[in-house]
Design a protein that fits this description.
- Helices cover 34% and strands 15% of the residues.
- By secondary structure, it is an alpha/beta fold.
- Strands 1, 2, 3, 4, 5 and 6 form a six-stranded mixed beta sheet that branches.
- β3 and β4 form a beta hairpin.
- α2 packs antiparallel against α4 and α3 packs antiparallel against α4.
Length: 193
């Protein structure tokens, strides 16, 4: 093993231990367009070596679409649906009872829309973990990880995108009060280690 490492150091090439590959996807709202382009390129080349995909916020939506072999859903969402004015409604700033981000519309249009996210393909692909921040009043905030293998993906994707102020209140799940996964774990690499 040390000889291989020395060989690569002398040649100036990277040495990687063989093992599981994880794809970690950050959030960042509309910056998810970049991730979508990268994952579209991977899809076009049939590149899918991942044993697990972990994402928060926009990265979670993009990762779920990629794992379901439907990256075009995320691409189309960023370039058309999310810019339609139905997702972000700035006039709701003055209406405290209304959300600025319409996450129900996002779930209905992108995840359950004309071409829904393929749950069957997603459940057979590598696991997709989606971060959400649990903000229960009786505990300090903590990161929860929802899995494509056992959890409700619609709820997980809604929770990880619930940005405070832009989404009024919490996404409720069991005894949890959930908000954007990017609050505590914007780049969830530690879970991949």
């Amino acid at each position: 093993m040390e000889i291989k490492r020395l060989y690569h150091r002398l040649r100036g090439t990277p040495y990687y231990k063989k093992g599981k590959k994880a794809l970690v996807l950050e959030g960042g709202g509309m910056r998810g367009i970049f991730l979508t382009g990268v994952l579209q390129s991977f899809t076009d080349r049939g590149y899918f070596p991942w044993k697990i995909i972990i994402g928060s916020s926009a990265g979670a939506l993009t990762g779920a679409a990629y794992a379901a072999r439907q990256i075009h859903l995320a691409r189309d969402a960023f370039f058309t649906e999310l810019m339609s004015g139905k997702f972000i409604n700035l006039s709701n700033i003055l209406r405290p009872e209304k959300h600025i981000l319409n996450l129900d519309w996002m779930v209905d249009t992108i995840i359950h829309g004309a071409e829904p996210l393929n749950d069957r393909t997603l459940s057979r692909a590598c696991p997709v973990l989606i971060t959400a921040t649990d903000c229960r009043p009786d505990n300090p905030p903590q990161t929860l990880y929802f899995s494509s293998r056992r959890d409700d993906m619609s709820l997980a994707l809604k929770a990880t995108a619930a940005i405070p102020v832009l989404y009024r209140g919490f996404v409720e799940y069991a005894k949890h009060h959930l908000l954007d996964g990017g609050l505590l774990d914007p780049i969830p690499y530690a879970k991949a280690l």
